[in-house]
Specification:
The chain is an alpha/beta fold. Helix content is 22%, strand content 23%. It has four domains: 20-202, Nucleotidyltransferase, domain 5 (2-Layer Sandwich); 230-300, BRCT domain (Rossmann fold, 3-Layer(aba) Sandwich); 377-441, BRCT domain (Rossmann fold); 462-629, Lipoxygenase-1, CATH 2.60.60.30. Helix 5 packs parallel to helix 7 and helix 6 (147-154) crosses helix 7 (164-185).
């Protein structure tokens, strides 16, 4: 079958018919605001899947081409190619009015947005579709979801990987096959509305150098400043605010933009001015000093304890963590160890202010959950919220994975009261999936093994479960780690996935370490939010480049508006190395009924290694209160 023609049986469902613009770019690096596009290809398809156009070009980036061993594009080969500004209008004409399609689409979209911005033009894309996100929904029986693996699974020939034109031709075949599978499963497309990312407000701020020293605590009366102390400034000062911040940072202090219970001192010339910082400092008992005293103390700042030194001491005094498993393969899958922490009751406790979970897991039993549902994925339909929660909890107790959406990976369906009216049930019946009632979960009888197609299922974590992240060749953690959250496709409200990069005090070092839709990347580019669809979002963490001061990354979700998680139902999380790699772990998390924010997972340091915990803790308050609890200076 030629991938440039419509595939036989191409029959997308209603809502899947669009004009498509398939895009692939090769770049000089991975950071769109800094790196450049070296080559670009666009293929256009009609709603019937037939190709209507094709364009490709090399581009002169005006910089070093970067990893030639990956893309093969040397400076000599690019010499004489047009610059992006010369071809921008033609590319815009191909994209206008079409849905942009790419594999890991936010990467290609962000690079195009920055290139169009440099050319002084608008990127004419209103919606995009990620074939990686679409196949997470479809869940084909493959070891991973890279473009090459999906091409092999769908029978699409691949001639030259990392060649932009060939990749778009392969992408066309994968898109057609994925749309067929989505239609078979009645899976809605994860279309993403695209904001004007060329707008300067979307560009991350230059990174602030993280403080190298651990916070020693509060300033004592008559005592000295110590490196690592958290110091904030408020009100009018004779010295410029910027100069005070720079001088404090140069002395080894952690100059903050907000005040919390961990603040060491607040610099203010008027404690009665009534600023938000002054009010918070008085409420928390934070010491106040005036500008003159602060400048005097800057002349004799005492040496602090570095984060590296603290970590070395902790390693020397603590028992060795459990053996860290190698990357998952069918042969090593059973080597993954899980620590089941004391998770408390199944329903999270509602608090008036966020009290994040402790940084290190409590000592607990190590076990790999197994049972009659091991290797099976069970979708629960109907029931009241508590009944559905209990059913999904029982599935995990029996060794299975609880699904929240219908996909090719679902092996069984449990129908509780009211589930007979679920719109997915006719499709489930047509797919001949086994359908059970609630009594089946008491002692399930499984007559057939699930068809995994050679794939090793992701390890199922219960709420509170902890797993060691694998080391790469024994030298350090995988370069990028992702946590993807998804929820029911019929959800009638918006959910925002966010991340907080926290220090040893469970606080952000500066506001920009709060990653959310309005600021989808922290300044150092170590943590990023990827919008994969209306019911799926991913947090990507570069573990190798997180500064020593970063002890933990907390991934959370918040309901936008008045609905609560009781209206949403369960959230499913999967986590693994890289965006297209096989997931290492998965968990299905249920909040109770009234929560509006929910802690999903945390990735934290344990000595020289990293661990991931499935949290599942909900709170009644909104995202602003959660952010304030982590030390973010939220306006209002």
């Amino acid at each position: 079958m030629s991938v440039t023609s419509a595939a036989p049986g191409f029959s997308p469902m209603r809502g899947h018919f669009h004009e498509w613009a398939l895009v692939d770019v090769e770049t000089s690096g991975l950071v769109p605001r800094r790196d450049r596009v070296l080559s670009l290809a666009v293929m256009t398809l009609g709603p019937d899947g037939e190709q209507t156009g094709e364009y490709s070009t090399l581009l002169d980036p005006g910089c070093d081409p970067g990893p030639v061993h990956v893309h093969g594009l040397t400076a000599e080969r690019l010499r004489g190619a047009p610059v992006f500004e010369e071809v921008a209008e033609g590319i815009a004409a191909l994209l206008e009015g079409r849905v942009l399609v790419a594999h890991n689409a936010q990467f290609d979209y962000d690079f195009l947005a920055h290139e169009f911005a440099r050319a002084g033009m608008r990127l004419p894309v209103a919606r995009r579709l990620c074939t990686l996100a679409l196949n997470r929904r479809v869940d084909p029986p493959t070891d991973d979801l890279t473009l090459g693996t999906l091409a092999a699974h769908y029978g699409v020939p691949q001639v030259q990987a990392h060649d932009a034109l060939d990749d778009t031709r392969v992408l066309a075949g994968v898109l057609r096959a994925s749309l067929r599978e989505a239609a078979r499963l009645d899976v809605p497309l994860p279309l993403v509305a695209c904001p004007p990312r060329q707008d300067p407000r979307f560009a991350p701020k230059p990174p602030k150098a993280p403080c190298a020293f651990r916070n020693p605590g509060r300033l004592t009366a008559g005592g000295p400043l110590v490196q690592g102390m958290k110091v904030a400034v408020t009100g009018d000062t004779r010295t410029s605010r910027a100069d005070l911040l720079l001088r404090g940072a140069a002395a080894g202090l952690n100059m903050m933009t907000s005040v919390s219970r961990h603040t060491s001192a607040l610099v203010t010339n008027d404690p009665t001015a009534g600023t938000a910082k002054a009010r918070r400092a008085l409420a928390e008992g934070v010491p106040l000093i005036d500008e003159e005293a602060f400048l005097r103390l800057l002349g004799d700042v005492r040496a602090g304890t570095s984060h590296e030194e603290t970590e070395s001491r902790a390693d020397a005094g603590a028992p060795a963590p459990p053996a860290v498993p190698a990357p998952r393969t069918p042969e090593t899958a059973d080597a993954v160890e899980t620590v089941v922490a004391d998770a408390g009751s199944a329903a999270p406790v509602t608090r008036t202010r966020p009290v994040p979970p402790a940084g290190a897991p409590k000592s607990g039993r190590r076990t790999r959950p197994r049972g009659p549902l091991t290797g099976r994925r069970v979708l629960v339909l109907g029931g009241t919220h508590p009944e559905a929660v209990a059913a999904r909890t029982r599935v995990v107790e029996l060794g299975g994975a609880a699904a929240v959406n219908l996909s090719a990976g679902v092996t069984d369906v449990v129908v509780l009261d009211g589930g007979e009216t679920d719109r997915r049930l006719p499709r489930i019946t047509a797919l001949l999936l086994p359908i059970h009632d609630a009594a089946w979960l008491i002692a399930p009888v499984v007559t057939e093994a699930p068809e995994a197609g050679g794939r090793v299922a992701a390890h199922v974590l219960p709420r509170g479960g902890v797993v060691d992240l694998p080391l790469q060749n024994g030298r350090g953690p995988a370069h990028r780690w992702t946590v993807t959250a998804s929820w029911a496709q019929q959800t009638a409200c918006d959910i925002d996935v966010v991340a907080f990069v926290l220090d040893e005090d469970e606080q952000v070092s500066f506001d920009e370490d709060f990653v959310f839709y309005g600021a989808p990347e922290n300044p150092g580019g170590t943590v990023r939010l990827l919008s994969d669809g209306p019911t799926e979002q991913t947090i990507s963490v570069d573990l190798a480049t997180l500064p020593p001061s970063a002890r933990k990354v907390v991934v959370a979700a918040a309901v936008d508006g008045s609905p609560v998680f009781g209206d949403v139902g369960a959230l499913h999380i999967v986590s693994g190395p890289g965006s297209g790699a096989a997931a290492l772990v998965q968990a299905t998390l249920d909040a109770a009924t009234t929560e509006r924010t929910m802690l999903l997972a945390e990735i934290y340091r344990r000595g020289q290694s990293w661990r991931l915990r499935a949290v599942g803790q909900g709170y009644d308050h909104g995202l602003e209160a959660l952010a304030r609890g982590y030390g973010v200076d939220v306006a209002g």
